[in-house]
């Protein structure tokens, strides 16, 4: 059992969170969940780039385990207070438009002049340099520009958006990994680095074998629907009561599948004897499998194919996901107050993530954070008088 008294891996790391929307907060959520002290620096207006209420499901899921200071960075005194926070921070994470952080004087050069050990982490739409660097980017724009929408959906359907903000989430995940690398390097060098990624870069990276098909073989992938782009049979099939996924494309698995399905005659069909042949004749192959699959229930097929060693599983909706016994065993629905949020998917022996604190109210910790940074009570009162803090 994890030792709940053992400090989490990132205990002692102080993070200033300047992020909005989803990509940046996704990065910071990793750090906060694993023990970093996260100070969310918010404008006194409390504006949220996603337009979500502070007590709504999205904000609550993204911003647990943080403290909040409401600080006006456009005010000279507010900026000076922020610099005091930066002097003792280990990491700053931001996803502003490239030019905005420089206009506010909170860019990497501004802050590392104060604190050379600072890791400055940035997510943008298209990169910190280059012809698109000043453009704002959102998830669906990046999905389209990175080619993801061109390979998603049924053949001939036209471009389809992936059902989650995959560019935001992937960029946030990758930036968190980059922060960890920079922190590790700092142990040796004593110096911080500017770590960056973008929605566009993260999605081109995630094209993976579809990208390498083009780069190495000149093949431009198209839409394959629920079928695997190059392997067959691998896709979605209707049983008597529910859709299931099966993956039986290798020679060994194909042989086992035919026997488990009671169709050993398929092994004698010349067009289906090789992986290449099965893919070339996919419409006829899929039709034959679909007809056979309808003879039994999803559970019957899952039990039969699992016993035979063939990867398979139901196509669940979101409610069915969280009712699944394996998902429940993995505790992916994390209790938080009187509700649940999504838990971290990272597991480290001897540790468990948890909700250390509920998402903060706007400016809930402004005074205590500033006092910790050496700002006097009189100076705090002066900041409040000029509406530099909340």
Write structural notes for this entry.
- The protein has 390 residues and is an alpha/beta fold.
- The protein folds into two domains: 14-207 and 346-385, Crotonobetainyl-coa:carnitine coa-transferase, domain 1 (Rossmann fold), CATH 3.40.50; 234-323, formyl-coa transferase, domain 3.
- Helix content is 40%, strand content 13%.
- It contains 17 helices and eleven strands.
- It has a six-stranded parallel sheet with strand order 3-2-1-4-5-6, sandwiched between helices.
- β7 (234-238) and β8 (243-247) form a beta hairpin.
- α1 packs across α7 and α7 (166-189) crosses α8.
- The two termini are 42 Å apart.
- The mean pLDDT is 96.
- Pfam families: CoA_transf_3.
- Keywords: Transferase.
- It comes from Plastoroseomonas arctica.
């Amino acid at each position: 059992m994890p030792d709940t008294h053992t400090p989490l891996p990132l205990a002692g790391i102080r993070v200033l969170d300047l992020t909005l929307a989803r990509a940046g907060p996704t990065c910071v959520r990793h750090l906060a969940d694993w023990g970093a002290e996260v100070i969310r620096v918010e404008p006194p207006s409390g504006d949220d780039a996603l337009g979500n209420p502070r007590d709504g499901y999205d904000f609550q899921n993204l911003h647990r385990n943080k403290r909040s200071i409401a600080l006006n960075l456009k005010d000279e005194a507010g900026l000076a207070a922020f610099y005091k926070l930066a002097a003792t921070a280990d990491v700053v994470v931001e996803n502003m438009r490239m030019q905005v952080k420089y206009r506010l004087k909170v860019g990497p050069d501004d802050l590392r002049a104060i604190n050379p050990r600072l890791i400055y982490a940035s997510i943008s739409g298209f990169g910190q340099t280059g012809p698109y660097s000043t453009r704002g980017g959102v998830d669906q724009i990046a999905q389209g520009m990175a080619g993801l929408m061109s390979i998603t959906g049924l053949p001939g359907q036209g471009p389809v958006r992936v059902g989650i903000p995959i560019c935001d989430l992937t960029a946030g995940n990758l930036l968190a990994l980059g922060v960890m690398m920079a922190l590790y390097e700092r142990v040796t060098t004593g110096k911080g680095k500017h770590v960056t990624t973008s929605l566009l870069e993260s999605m081109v990276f995630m094209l993976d074998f579809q990208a390498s098909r083009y780069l190495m073989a000149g093949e431009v992938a198209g839409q394959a629907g629920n079928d695997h782009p190059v392997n067959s049979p691998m896709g979605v099939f209707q049983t008597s009561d529910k859709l299931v996924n099966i993956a039986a494309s290798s020679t060994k698995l194909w042989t086992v599948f035919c026997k488990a399905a009671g169709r050993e005659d398929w092994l004698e069909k010349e067009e289906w004897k090789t992986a290449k042949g099965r893919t070339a004749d996919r419409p006829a192959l899929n039709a034959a499998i679909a007809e056979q699959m309808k003879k039994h229930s999803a559970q019957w097929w899952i039990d039969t194919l699992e016993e035979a060693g063939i990867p398979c599983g139901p196509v669940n909706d979101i409610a069915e996901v969280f009712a699944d016994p394996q998902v429940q065993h993995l505790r992916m629905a994390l209790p938080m107050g009187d509700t649940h949020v999504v838990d971290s998917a990272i597991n480290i022996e001897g540790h468990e993530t948890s909700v250390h604190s509920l998402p903060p109210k706007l400016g809930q910790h402004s005074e205590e954070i500033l006092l910790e940074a050496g700002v006097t009570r009189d100076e705090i009162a002066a900041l409040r008088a000029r509406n530099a803090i909340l």
